[in-house]
Inverse folding.
DNA sequence: ATCGCTTAG
DNA sequence: GTCCACTAAGCGATT
């Protein structure tokens, strides 16, 4: 099935990859696209982040083997680079003949916006954004990367080069081959037009050919509903969200950086005194040698891989609890070093000079469970758990006249477990709206609710989390700091109280072993690598198999809510903008006067995004910053 | 490039 | 007997 010579779309008999550099030729391609009803589109730019990149050229494919490249902003390769020094006028040959960008977009717009012509891209979110920046709203769309993702999420990658090889047996021209690598790399606008045409037209051609194959494969794999109701409609929603960006207050970050720098200097000096000599506190290797070779502390563990002393937080915490002062200092140092290097020093540099806001990129096909991920910068792991870290959220602010609103699902993964595993006791608890951790604690440890202690509740909460992670006595014992035997007894008690859960877990593992994948409630496939193996690898795969349907169903549900929200807000005449998604939370910027109406509507849409049986609950918080809203 | 560690849900 | 209780991304040190 994988590397078959494809039965549905033969290899093109002729390959025409042509350069388009006149308006007449471009108009003819547009006519051809309108006639075809399906075109593949690809944009070439001078950068990877759409909010900073400039459009350099566009390629179109109208049938397999027939594609063109329309250069728009190419310059002569000998033109001196910006900022390279020297006089920047008069050097280099004049630019090659090209259709003026505005003219080209005007000619292409009727095709790209035509409701009867499907525009296919590979990761079309990027291209959609490039066109949106120039006033073109591409629709309807299709995406070969996302088609591959719904079929093979967790089993293989979804890059175009990889898919071309696997599905078409074609080795594509690599980007590196065209632009060079390292410090010799040139931006695409300097690539000579013959090379640029060969590369860019091929990309559109391959995308169209992949579309023919993957359209069939998604259908044959019965993944059409997931693709058409979740992945595809999410593209313009996430595209707009990224372009909106979030307002970040540089001054707040600057002050925090200064504060953290001061603390780091102090802590470093104290650590060196306690160590008896100077060393690089940021080097785990040197720290391990100080603690376990020189200070001869006990309780050291060597990592299996490199044989180096482990100095992670669990090790340091144990030693700190024994009253070893250097360990607490190192933990504090690490916290500030992390906050400064990853957040306060870096986020300010990510503010886009054009918009004054920070635009993350959400990857739509990066995880094995259906979750999004966030990069450049990652805005899904902004600190919240410690007081110092949480201060960073003060820098994420609303524009004047607006508020930040955070709306998150309450206990969504446990609700999903209760539903998928069919656990009546848990389902009833959620219907009654009672404290779920206290309730499970009461059931598992035989403690009446009115005699519940925070310690017992804490243990039950840890077990509830453990269930979601594909519980093991080893993992739970580490989490709770108890023996594996005790942890095993807790798990046994839990299964006795909720026997449906154990049955569900066994069934899920068996399915994964039989099929190689598991499914979410909405039908998404999550492939599980290593489930056919033995021992620890199999156990690991089994825990993934337990977790994936739970995490993946939550991902499906919030995606459905995101898809519904723009229309629901518009229909209600509300002007809130969705800014971020953090797995079970959506962040909005809301006009002051619309806070109440928006809060009610967003909660309603999120709670009604999917009917999983038991009710979903969403809770909203509002403030001038993300810190206040949460 | 990879490791070790830390941040989030 | 097991690097791993699940999913991610990024930084500095090290190779």
């Amino acid at each position: 099935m994988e590397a078959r010579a494809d039965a549905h779309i033969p290899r093109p008999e002729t390959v025409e990859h042509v350069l388009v550099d006149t308006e007449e030729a471009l108009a003819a391609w547009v006519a051809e696209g309108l006639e075809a009803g399906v075109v593949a589109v690809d944009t070439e730019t001078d950068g990877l982040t759409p909010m900073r990149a400039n459009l350099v050229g566009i390629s179109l494919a109208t049938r397999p083997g027939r594609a063109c490249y329309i250069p728009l902003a190419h310059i002569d390769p000998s033109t001196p680079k910006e900022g390279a020094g020297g006089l920047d006028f008069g050097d280099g040959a004049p630019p090659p003949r090209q259709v003026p960008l505005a003219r080209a977009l005007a000619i292409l717009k009727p095709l790209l916006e035509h409701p009867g012509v499907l525009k296919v891209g590979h990761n079309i979110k990027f291209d959609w954004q490039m066109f949106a920046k120039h006033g073109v709203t591409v629709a309807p769309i299709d995406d070969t990367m996302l088609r591959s993702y719904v079929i093979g999420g967790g089993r293989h990658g979804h890059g175009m080069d990889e898919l071309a090889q696997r599905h078409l047996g074609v080795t594509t021209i690599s980007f590196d081959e065209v632009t060079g690598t390292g410090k010799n790399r040139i931006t695409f606008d300097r690539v000579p037009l013959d090379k640029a045409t060969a590369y860019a037209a091929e990309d559109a051609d391959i995308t169209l050919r992949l579309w023919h194959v993957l359209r069939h494969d998604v259908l044959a794999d019965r993944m059409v509903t997931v693709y058409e109701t979740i992945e595809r409609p999410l593209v313009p929603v996430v595209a707009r969200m990224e372009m909106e960006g979030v307002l970040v207050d540089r001054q707040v970050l600057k002050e925090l950086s200064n504060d953290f720098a001061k603390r780091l200097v102090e802590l470093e000096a104290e650590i060196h005194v306690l160590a008896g000599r100077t060393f690089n506190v940021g080097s785990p290797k040197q720290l391990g040698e100080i603690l376990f070779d020189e200070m001869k502390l006990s309780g050291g563990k060597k990592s299996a891989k490199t044989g180096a002393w482990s100095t992670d937080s669990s090790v340091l915490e144990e030693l700190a609890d024994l009253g070893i002062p250097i360990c607490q200092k190192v933990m504090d140092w690490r916290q500030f070093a992390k906050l400064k290097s990853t957040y306060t020093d870096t986020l300010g540099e990510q503010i886009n000079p054009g918009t004054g806001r920070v635009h993350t990129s959400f990857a739509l096909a990066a995880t094995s469970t259906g979750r999004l991920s966030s990069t450049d910068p990652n805005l899904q792991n902004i600190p919240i758990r410690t007081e110092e870290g949480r201060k960073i959220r003060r820098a994420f602010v609303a524009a004047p006249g607006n508020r930040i609103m955070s709306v998150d699902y309450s206990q969504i993964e446990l609700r999903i477990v209760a539903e998928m595993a069919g656990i009546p006791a848990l389902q009833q608890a959620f219907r009654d709206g009672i404290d779920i951790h206290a309730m499970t604690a009461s059931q598992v440890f035989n403690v009446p609710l009115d005699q519940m202690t925070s310690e017992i509740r804490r243990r039950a909460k840890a077990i509830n989390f453990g269930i979601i992670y594909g519980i093991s006595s080893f993992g739970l014992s580490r989490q709770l700091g108890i023996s594996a035997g005790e942890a095993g007894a807790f798990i046994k008690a839990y299964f006795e109280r909720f026997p449906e859960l154990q049955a569900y877990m066994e069934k899920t593992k068996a399915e994964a072993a039989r099929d190689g994948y598991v499914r979410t409630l909405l039908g998404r496939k999550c492939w599980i690598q290593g489930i056919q193996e033995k021992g620890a690898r199999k156990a690991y795969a089994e825990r993934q198999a337990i977790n994936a349907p739970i995490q993946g169903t939550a991902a499906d549900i919030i995606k459905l809510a995101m898809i519904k929200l723009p229309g629901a807000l518009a229909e209600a005449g509300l002007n809130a903008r969705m800014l971020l998604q953090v797995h079970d939370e959506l962040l909005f910027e809301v006009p002051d006067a619309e806070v109440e109406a928006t809060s009610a509507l967003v909660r309603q849409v999120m709670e009604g995004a999917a009917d999983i049986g038991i009710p979903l609950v969403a809770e909203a918080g509002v403030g001038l910053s993300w810190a206040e809203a949460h």
